[in-house]
Design goal:
By secondary structure, this protein is of the alpha/beta class. The chain has a single domain (about 30-285), classed as TIM Barrel (Alpha-Beta Barrel). The chain contains 16 helices and 9 strands. Strands 1-4-5-6-7-8-9 form a 7-stranded parallel sheet. A two-stranded antiparallel sheet has the order 2-3. α8 (about 145-155) packs across α9 (about 160-170), α10 runs parallel beside α12 (about 220-230) and α15 packs across α16. The longest helix is centred in the middle third of the chain and has 25 residues, at about 170-195. The two termini are about 15 Å apart. It binds coproporphyrinogen III. Coproporphyrinogen III binds near residues 25, 74, 76 and 94.
Length: about 350
């Protein structure tokens, strides 16, 4: 049963026989099986075709030998039914054609019921669950309110998040209204993923590292916390962000059973700051997977040494697998984690 899986045990800080590992963006163009499916359909078509989304989910987990599968979807799937116009442009990433920057635009956003707005995500979860071995947990996910808001406000990827910060600071009421709408939507979306068969969920706040700690506390933390406390009890929540060295204690305050770390922090020092009451996920630099397997093994050992066998470590990259990565190198990382972390069965 997934409940006694190494991954879910580690989320609950229980002892395990080896450190569980999975990789953010473990499904992607670097995998031959994914490339052949994507040659036939676009990213959005793939997300909207549950048998295909379930198949790439299961195949990636098998190919890589990881301890958890993650459902194939995207944090911006909810943007399309919000009516803001979403497309994925090759080489540029996601584009939102009608950015949301005014009180009126926020008011016009419809109140979505995820089961009606993105039914294909839940169908894909049910099919993937049925196709996975019993012991392998399936992770559901959503973008956190800030990270989704940043795409809606900017209209696409951004380095400086100037429109987002402009709105936050010049019209805090509109900002908070937007964040409240997204928090409510994200809560319903994740709870529906859990009901469909996700054994754990990850909240991606990928871009919060751009914020000053006081702004995170004031404009983001209450909304993220509202999502996390309203999720179905008993399902572990992984709270992930990048560039969070200045925000770790605040992320912890916002919540999550597991805090996802990127590679710019030492895992031991970061865990010390977070305290014993939480598990940690991370945090190998994804660029290390471009190096030969012997170097990957060395990097894996360093992360495992930093975790020092304490219960509650889930091995992962500090961010997603880079598209240039040879898939065999991801497999080499997974095998090295399993081998180097093996200990007496609990
Ligand atoms: O982790 C997995 O393997 C599951 C699938 C998954 C996708 N997107 C599919 C996808 C997950 C977990 C995501 C999350 C996501 N999407 C995030 C948060 C994670 C992170 O990387 O910080 C963000 C910010 C997005 C938005 C998004 N979608 C961007 C910025 C891009 C383009 C840039 C890129 O990395 O290629 C996408 C497109 C996208 N979503 C791809 C995949 C596999 C790219 C490959 C393709 O076009 O097939």
């Amino acid at each position: 049963m997934p409940a006694d899986s190494v991954f879910l045990r580690a989320c609950r800080r229980l002892p395990v026989a080896y450190t569980p590992v999975w990789a953010m963006r473990q499904i992607g163009r670097y995998l031959p099986a994914y490339r052949s499916v994507r040659a036939r359909m676009s990213l959005l078509e793939l997300c909207k075709t549950p048998p295909a989304a379930a198949e790439v989910t299961v195949r990636a987990a098998e190919t890589l030998g990881v301890d958890a599968a993650i459902i194939f979807a995207d944090i911006l799937l909810v943007a399309e039914p919000l009516g803001v116009g979403l497309s994925f442009v090759r080489g540029e990433g996601p584009v939102i054609h009608r950015p949301v920057r005014t009180a009126d635009a926020v008011r016009r956003l419809p109140d979505l019921e995820p089961a009606d707005a993105v039914p294909f995500v839940f169908d894909a979860i049910r099919l993937a669950r049925a196709g996975l071995p019993d012991r392998l947990p399936l992770i559901g996910f959503a973008g956190a309110p800030f990270t989704v808001a940043s795409y809606l406000v900017e209209g696409g990827p951004s380095r400086e998040f100037l429109e987002t910060k402009r709105l936050m600071h010049s019209d805090p009421d509109t900002w908070n209204a937007l964040m409240e709408r997204l928090a409510a939507l994200t809560t319903r979306y994740l709870n529906a993923q859990i009901a469909a068969g996700a054994s754990a969920v990850q909240l991606f706040d990928s871009w919060i590292g751009c914020l000053a700690p006081d702004d995170y506390r004031r404009f983001v933390l209450p909304h993220s916390r509202r999502v996390i406390v309203a999720l179905s009890p008993g399902t572990p929540v992984i709270h992930f962000g990048t560039g969070t060295a200045g925000l770790l204690e605040l992320m912890r305050e916002a919540g999550g059973d597991v805090i996802g770390l990127d590679w710019r922090v030492g895992l031991d020092a970061a865990w010390h700051r977070l305290g014993d009451g939480v598990a940690v996920q991370g945090n190998l630099d994804p660029a290390l997977l471009l190096a030969p397997p012997a170097e990957i093994r060395r990097g894996v050992r360093a992360v495992l040494d930093a975790a020092a066998g304490r219960p509650g470590h889930i091995f992962n990259l500090g961010h997603g697998v880079l598209p240039q990565t040879p898939w065999e190198h991801v497999r080499a990382m997974v095998d090295a984690v399993h081998e180097l972390s093996a200990r007496a069965a609990p």
